[in-house]
Amino acid sequence: MLSTRTTQTTFREEQLDLVFKALCDKTRRELLSRLSQGSVMITELAAPFEMSLPAVSKHLRVLEKAGLVERTVNGRVHSCALNVAPLKTAGEWLQYYEKFWSESLNALSAYVQTESQLNNNSQQE
Amino acid sequence: MLSTRTTQTTFREEQLDLVFKALCDKTRRELLSRLSQGSVMITELAAPFEMSLPAVSKHLRVLEKAGLVERTVNGRVHSCALNVAPLKTAGEWLQYYEKFWSESLNALSAYVQTESQLNNNSQQE
DNA sequence: TTAATAGTAAACCATATGGTTTAATGATTC
DNA sequence: GAATCATTAAACCATATGGTTTACTATTAA
Q1: Chain A residues with CB inside 8 Å of B94's CB?
Q2: Could you tell me the CATH number of the domain that includes residue A100?
Q3: Alpha carbon distance B4, A107 (integer Å)
């Protein structure tokens, strides 16, 4: 049962790995942006990019692996659709840090600075 | 002048590249989590990890490059502090997609239905 | 049935990543 | 001044990434 918890944990961590990795490339973010306006077949999706079709195909596979894109095959045409669920997971991760910037520009920044000063001092030998 | 706009744009894209790249590794996310509770010196920061100190040092450099960590050198002690500003940029990027999941299971489906009813009155099969 | 279209697979390349170990650098302390 | 401590640098390794080009497969159209 501890193993269950561990597996669960690493699953979420792995999902975060995959999603953030998927998002760290400009081309892939543009693909997502394009898909946010509706499903498109791959050739059409790839057209605006300067790189080769196989290159775009690889990027799509990265997005699929992260669960961000779902593919529907219809004859020889592959249609891609956006799936935002993994973005939600990423958003939840980010949300933890939201408090730091919502508070950061006024009271907190001063507080943190004195705090870290105290920490630094106590760490010096 | 157009080049200014272009540069500006790619700057944001590059920042997103760096931030998402920084976040796509479990170790680095853990480092951030640790730093969210206050500044720490590097040895102390690295202690809980099983990898070598140089490995952690490299991860920290990735975080610094993304602007997520700021270093203060004090004698031989380097203190690291969290800087959430780049996370805010990432959050803003994500926010565009928020509507897709916040509306998807309830309001949106209704909205889309009425929308499509309006749009497709003449297009129904 | 031949040709064209949509897409992937495979082989290749350069560079990046994530880790290691063994120096090396620079402050501190004794 | 010698030893120790905090940290990076450098060299190395295996694998991943992002791109290319050239097949190849499968479906559709002529």
Answers
A1: 87, 90-91, 94
A2: 1.10.10.10
A3: 35
Nucleotides of D under 7 A from a protein CB: 5-11, 17-22, 26-28
Contact (CB<8Å) A26/B40: no
Q: How many residues does chain B have?
A: 125
The structural domain count of chain A equals 1
Instruction: List pLDDT tens digits, range B26-67.
Output: 999 999 999 999 999 999 999 999 999 999 999 999 999 999
Residue A114 belongs to domain spanning: 2-123
Token readout for A76 is 């020889």
Has residue B81 been placed in a domain? Answer: yes
HSE of B10, CA atoms in CB hemisphere, 13 A:
5
CA distance B1 to chain A (A): 23
Q: Write down the pLDDT at residue A55.
A: 98
Q: Residue ranges of chain A with pLDDT lower than 70?
A: 1-9, 103-125
